[in-house]
Amino acid sequence: MPMEPDSGISPPRNHPQLSWVNLSRNLILAYQSFGVVYGDLSTSPLYVYRSIFIGKLQNHRNEDAIFGAFSLIFWTLTVLPLLKYVFILLSADDNGEGGTFALYSLLCRHAKFSLLPNQQAADEELSAYKYGPSRQASSSLPLRRFLEKHKKSRTALLIVVLLGACMVIGDGVITPAISVLSSVSGLQLNEHKLTDGEVLLLTCVILVGLFALQHCGTHKVAFMFAPIVIIWLISIFVIGLYNTIYWNPKIVRAISPHYIIKFFSETGKDGWISLGGVLLSITGTEAMFADLGHFTALSIRLAFAFVVYPCLVVQYMGQAAFLSKNIPSIPNSFYDSIPEIVFWPVFVIATLAAIVGSQAIITATFSIIKQCHALGCFPRVKIVHTSKHIYGQIYIPEINWILMILTLAIAIGFRDTTLIGNAYGLACMTVMFITTCLTALVIIFVWQRSILLAAAFLLFFGSIEGVYLSSAFIKVPQGGWVSLVLSFIFMVIMFIWHYGTRKKYNFDLHNKVPLKWLLGLGPSLGIVRVPGIGLIYSELATGVPAIFSHFVTNLPAFHNVLVFVCVKSVPVPYVSSEERFLIGRICPRPYRMYRCIVRYGYKDIQRDDGDFENQLIQSIAEFIQMEAVEPQLSSSESASFDGRMAVISTRTIESSASLMVCEQEDFGASNSIQSSKSLTLQSLRSAYDDENPQVRRRQVRFQLPPNLGVDPLVREELLDLIEAKEAGVAYIMGHSYVKARRSSSYLKKLVIDIGYSFLRKNCRGPAVALNIPHISLIEVGMTYYV
C-alpha cells in the first residue's frame, strides 16, 4: 500500500516514543524492500566479471587489470547508486511516488509542460497537486517560458519520458532471461555437467513457470521474497570475505582510484569498451527510485547503505581476490569462487534470487504500462487487481504473455549472458541518463534552486553516465541492438496511439454543439423527454460533444435527466475519493442537464465496485442543494450557461441529508427497483446479473427526507432525479471510426488508417475499460475525419 509522502528529509522528532515508532516502521519497510527492490541489483555478481573480460580485454587478463576492474565497480557503486540515488534522487518524490513518471508529473504541475488535453484550473485545487514549494525562482523564469511557449520542446520532453518507459519495458524482457540463465549456468560447472541445450531447456521451464504464475499476484509469495534476498546477500558477503582473506587480502588497496587510472593507461580503448560490463554491476538501481511508492525514502536508504552496498562491495572484492590468483576462471568467476562444500546451497539461493529479481521488474513493467495509458500513450489493456490489501498490485494478461514470448526468444536466440548483458546494460544506463536529465529540470523548476546547481548536477552525473552509455552503444552489434529494437517497437505503438487519440480529441473539441442551439430548442430539446437517466460519455471536460447532436436530430425521444460524464487523468499519482467528482450544470435548471468529471491519478486504479451510479446520483443531489445555497455556482447568471463546477466530497455525501438511502436485499428479477418497465429487459438484466456475479451492483432506493426544508423548485428537481433513477440508467457512448482526410499526407494515412485503426480494433473497448454494464449500453456510430 502506498505510504505517506516522504520527501526524504525527516522532520525533527521531539517525542522519543514517536521517534521509535517511526524508526521501527521504517525498519519493517526496509526489510520488505529487499524482496521487491533489490533482487535485480543483488544478482549482478553472477555475470559482471565475465562480461568485463570478454572480447578485446582478453589480452589484458592479469592481476593489475582485475584490481582496476574491481576499483571501477567499487566507485561506480559508490557514485551512482549511493551518492546519486540514495542521497539525492530519493528526495525528488511526487507525493511519495518515484520513477520517471513522477519526475514528469512534478514538472507538469510546476510548469505548463503537460500535453494531457482536457486539463482544467480546478485540477490545480487537488491537495496532491500542491506538493512541493509554491514560490517561483526568478532565475528559472526565462527557461520556463521558453519551454512552455514551444510545443516542440514539450513534445520532446514527453518523448524522452516515454523512451525511459520503453527502456524499462525492455528491462522487463531482458532481466528474466539474463538472471535465470546466469544462475542456472552453474549446473555446467559441477561434476554432473549439463550440456548447453539442457541448461537452456531448464531456463525456459523456469521462465514459463515465472510468467504463468503472474496472475496469482506477488503478494501470495511476497513473504518469501525478502528472506531469499537477505540470505543471498549474507551468502555472497561471507563468500566474498572468505575469498578476500584466503586468496589475496591486498585487493583492499584497489579501493584507491589510482588503480582506475592504471587500468585505463594499460588497456586504453579496450578498457573503455569494457565499461559496458562494469555498468552491469548497477543494473537494477532504478528500482530504488521507481518502487519508492511502496516504501519510504528512509527505509530504502537504510536497506541499501547498511546491507546491500556493503554485501555487494565485499562480494566483488572477494571475486577479484580469487580471480587475481585464478585467472583462467574468469568465464565462470562467480561459481568457481564458491568453496565446493557450499556450492549446492548457494546455487539454489542464486536461482531463487534470480527469480525474485525477475519478478520485481515484471511487476514494474505492468505499472509503467498502466502509467503510459494514463498519459494517453498506450492502448487500453485489461488490468487485473491481484491483491485486495496491497494497492497498486496489478497484472496485465496481454502484456504478460508478450513479455514471456520475447524473453524466451532472447534466451533461446542468444544463449549467452554476455550478449544479453550488452542489451541489458544499454537499457539500464539509458534510463539512468534520462532520470539525471529530468532531475536537473526538477532542481530548477520544483526545488527552485539555481540553474548553476542543476548544471553542476547534470555535468557531474551526466558525464559519468554518458561515458558508460557511449561504451554500451559500442556493443550495439553484439546484442545491444535488442534494447533499441524493443524500445523502437513500443515507442511506435505509443506514438501512434497518442497521435490518434490527440487528433480524435481535437476533432471533438472543434465540433462541440453550440449551447445557443440547445437553448433555442428549449427545455424539451425539441423531442420527447422520457423517464430515466442518460449518462453520455465523452473525453471533453467542457462543452457538449458532437455525438449529442446525432441523438437529438435522429431519435424521437431522450432521457429526462442527462449527465455528461468525462473520465480523465490528472498529473498527480493519486486522487483521493473526497476529490474525485466534479459536478456542474449545463443550461438552465429546467433542462435537467449536468456534467460530471471523474478524475484519476496516473497510479490510480479504476475499480468496479458497482456503486458508481449511486455515488453519481448522490453527488448531483448534493450539487443541487449546494447551488441553492451558493448562488455563484448557478449557471443562470452565466452568459454561457455552462456553469462552474463544484467538488463533491464523498464525506459530504455521507453526512448530507439531501437523500435518504434504503438498501435493497433482493437482487433477483423480483427487485422492487425496476430498471425498465419492459418485462423483456428485466429478464435480460436478471440473466446479465447471473452471468456476472463478480460485479454485484448495490441496489438502493433514494427518498427525500420528510423534513427537508428547501425551495419548491429544488425539491421538484430532486424528485425528478429520484424518479429518473427509478426508471433506469442508460450509458451512451460514441462508437467512433477515425479516418485521415483525403487531403492528408501518405504518412498520416498510414498512421491513422492502418496503425491507429489496428490498435483500436485489437485493444479493449472503452465501455469495458470504464466498467460499463453492456446490458445498459447504447453506442452511436460516428466517423471522425482528422
TrEMBL record:
Membrane topology, record value: Multi-pass membrane protein
Cellular component aspect of the GO annotation: plasma membrane
Entry's localization field: Cell membrane; Membrane
Domain K+ potassium transporter C-terminal: 531-784
Main localization, broad class: membrane
Regions that span the bilayer: 65-83, 155-179, 199-216, 223-242, 272-290, 302-322, 342-369, 390-412, 424-445, 452-474, 480-497
Protein name per UniProt: Potassium transporter
Native source organism of the sequence: Nyssa sinensis
Source species taxonomy: Eukaryota, Viridiplantae, Streptophyta, Embryophyta, Tracheophyta
